[in-house]
Amino acid sequence: MSGISRRSLFGLGAAGVAAAGAGAVAARVLADEPPAARPVSSSSASDAVPFYGRHQAGITTPAQDRLHFVAFDVTTTERAELVDLLQEWTAAAARMTQGRDAGAFGAVGGAPEAPPDDTGEALGLPASGLTLTVGFGPSLFDERFGLAGRRPPALADLPAFAGDGLLPEISGGDICVQACAHDPQVAVHAIRNLARIGFGRVTVRYSQLGFGRTSSTSRTQATPRNLMGFKDGTNNLKLEDTAMLRDHLWAAPGDGPAWMDGGAYLVTRKIRMHIETWDRAPLAEQEAIFGRDKGEGAPLTGKAEFDEPDFAKTGLGGEPVIPRDAHVRLAHPTSHGGARLLRRGYNYVDGSDGLGRLDAGLFFMAYQRDPRRQFVPVQQALAATDPLNEYIKHVSSGLFACPPGVVDASDHWGRALFA
């Protein structure tokens, strides 16, 4: 790989009426909703992902095409108000993921003198595979709500990584919600309505739209490409990997507090790509950086994408065919005691800067059993020596404990945490 720095050459070139509560109220509302709130599209039921279950949907669920991720700061100081909000959010999420309106009376069925129970932009649209996944950030476990003693050890603050350029205003957050769907309007509608319901109790800290998933979470899906043109997440954990999911994804009894049993930990990183610089790098250099063929996604020692990399194979002059600092080598499970991640990243383009360069890259999301043993060592290795760092910059970071799933209509997000 060329030792010339190509960056040095080309671097210049909301308020509203809250939704119905959870528990018995949620069960009654779901069973006996007014006609105006019933879904318009007859196809929504077949397009819906079940909301209730042992684990939250949106983790191992086959990755949808679109993302709207949001981090909230909690503004209320009353524990009871926060619990009420989580109940209301859960009831709304259970409805929206099934293609229904956020509230019992919907966008057009309530009193004309009051704001609607739903903002209305998803009227007539099917569920579009919508999933809503919630997580709690380290900052929630302070003195405000009496949760300090319930913070899981695995929710330890991430260390600083070499080369980070993190912006505090788009990092962290007390609570996150990940909305994934096949229709961007459905995902945006879901987040918009949760923010509306939360008015006066939470504020949006930051949000991110994503498109073109960059990882496959099921073997039924083809591996997608990132904005650098390479297949991404080939060695990602998959829905079908039952034993590995048990070992590497789901928090187990004894890992930490019982309220996290069956949950997972989410790390988010917004990674801006220096697209214009990358586009001027020779193909051979690009492939050496990744350690993979750009066309097939095969390791440089193989012919097909899922061929196992042969890190011992040497070429001319006895040098490894896959360079010692190649991305695939540094991130490979064999370099980290077998640690694996379940990735659900998305491409993003947030317009362009004042010099006409795309503000674009990867919104990285990875779920795991313990970030201290999985994401952190992998990222430390990448931050130290990955030549890809010449073309990227990490500008946002988040860490969240995502509890187990909501079992039924009497349950709600965070119930065991606040019990």
From TrEMBL:
Signal peptide: 1-26
Gene Ontology biological process: iron import into cell
A GO CC annotation given for this chain: cytosol
Catalytically driven reaction(s): heme b + 2 H(+) = protoporphyrin IX + Fe(2+)
Identification of the protein by name: Deferrochelatase
Family: Belongs to the DyP-type peroxidase family.
Role played: Involved in the recovery of exogenous heme iron. Extracts iron from heme while preserving the protoporphyrin ring intact.
Entry's Gene Ontology molecular function annotations: ferrochelatase activity; heme binding; metal ion binding; peroxidase activity
Record localization: Cell envelope
One matching Pfam family: Dyp_perox_C
Domain Dyp-type peroxidase C-terminal: 223-406
Location of the Dyp-type peroxidase N-terminal domain: 56-211
Keyword Cell membrane: no
